[in-house]
Amino acid sequence: MKIQRTGAIVLRQYYLLRGSPARVLPLFAWVAIDMVLWGFITKYLNSVSASGFNFVPTLLGAVLLWDFFIRVMQGVTMAFLEDVWSRNFLNVFATPLSISEYVSGLVLSSIGTSAIGMLVMLVLATAVFGLSFFAYGAMLVPSLLVLFLFGIALGITASAVMLRLGPASEWFIWPIPALLSPFAGVFYPLSTLPRWMQYLSRLLPPSYVFESMRRTILGGVASPSALALGGTLAVADILLACWFFVYIYRHAVKTGLIARYSAESLS
Q1: Considering the entire predicted model, what is its pTM?
Q2: What's 189's DSSP letter?
Q3: Fewer beta carbons below 10 Å: N end or C end of the chain?
Q4: Where are the domains of the chain?
């Protein structure tokens, strides 16, 4: 794998963003709206709650972490979709570019775009609503890492699905974070869920992050072993996602699907 080829994928995304304000605005607009909306909701809950419980680190912090995960996933899929919308696959893979270099370029592009959204969320959450990240303790960094790894895995998997089913299948991809959020326990403990949902939740790395976050905020101690398990699952998901992408790509080349890729293909 050559870093210059991976860098070329990243550079292409940079040129696309630089030349189109319409592509730049979504990087921070939606996360800013989420932060403002949930920030005022937490302030309202603090004002009407008689218990004195502070909802800012639990609710607003959960929204921030979950939005970070979504931005990481969408950073990969959006970079992939730029090639989908421009019918650029034949041009890209007619070069010596390997699959590992292409996927690495998508991941690096996601790091750049998600970092912008994360910065906006941090500024709004801390400066406007007084969210202190010291409340999460030293486990904040590994928690973000787990969410990042799982977001990358999900983004690669979603890209493979769109490569196999065609551009029209992108509408199957956008709801995925919303479908996973009930199982991840973003806003409530996993014990709230029915038993069958709890079994599925244990397969999702984000569930370990949010359980640890709530335990820390309520005065407990986050379990390093639980976060380590979540990280192990996230790494396994990335390996499976990369294998799946390579498998789908080889199928697309073997069957000629990549040459007749069109907006209507769903087979």
Answers
A1: 0.90
A2: -
A3: C
A4: 3-259
